[in-house]
Backbone:
């Protein structure tokens, strides 16, 4: 009989109530353990790999959220060749790859943020993450401008934990080809 995956909501709430830096450390440890948990792999990751063969773009396959917005745990499925646009979040965040590997690119703003709808970015680094690599963390806003995707062959699955949002905006989307940035509203 397969074990059904259910996240430890009490632990997620405790993490979300911490100040940002300790929350990120705890979130990274939580996710690094989660992607090695046989119950998670068997009941969630493997079925999603089979399901993803019908998809052509990345998507959120499962979502576990607190009623009060204190945290959001999301399981992303990345078919080969898919990825996000460059963006940030209005919360801290952490993610770990559960299956396959994903590529993360990080950016920094080189402008001072004074002009509305304008942002000049510089790519700072990129890393490929697999289940053995632990978790990546991002700060809210300019401290976490990034893009995640699966440029490789086969499906990848990652698990993302976000803390409480700051304000009504979900984050910002960036287009470096036009030095453009705009707010992204929560769905």
Residues:
């Amino acid at each position: 009989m397969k074990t059904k995956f259910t996240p430890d909501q009490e632990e997620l709430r405790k993490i979300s109530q911490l100040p940002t830096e300790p929350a990120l450390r705890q979130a990274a440890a939580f996710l690094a353990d989660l992607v090695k948990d046989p119950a998670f792999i068997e009941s969630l990751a493997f079925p999603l790999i089979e399901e993803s063969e019908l998809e052509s773009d990345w998507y959120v396959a499962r979502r576990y959220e607190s009623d009060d917005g204190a945290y959001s745990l999301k399981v992303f499925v990345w078919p080969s060749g898919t990825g996000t646009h460059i963006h940030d979040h209005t919360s801290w965040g952490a993610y770990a790859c559960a299956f396959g590997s994903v590529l993360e690119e990080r950016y920094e703003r080189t402008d001072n943020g004074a002009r509305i709808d304008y942002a000049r970015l510089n790519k700072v680094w990129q890393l490929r993450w697999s289940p053995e690599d632990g978790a990546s963390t991002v700060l809210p806003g300019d401290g976490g401008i990034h893009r995640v995707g699966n440029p490789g062959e086969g499906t990848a699955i990652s698990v993302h934990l976000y803390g409480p949002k700051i304000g009504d905006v979900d984050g910002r989307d960036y287009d470096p080809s036009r030095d453009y940035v705009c707010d992204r509203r929560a769905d």
Summary: Residues 9-185 form a domain with the Jelly Rolls fold (CATH 2.60.120.10). The chain has three helices and eleven strands.
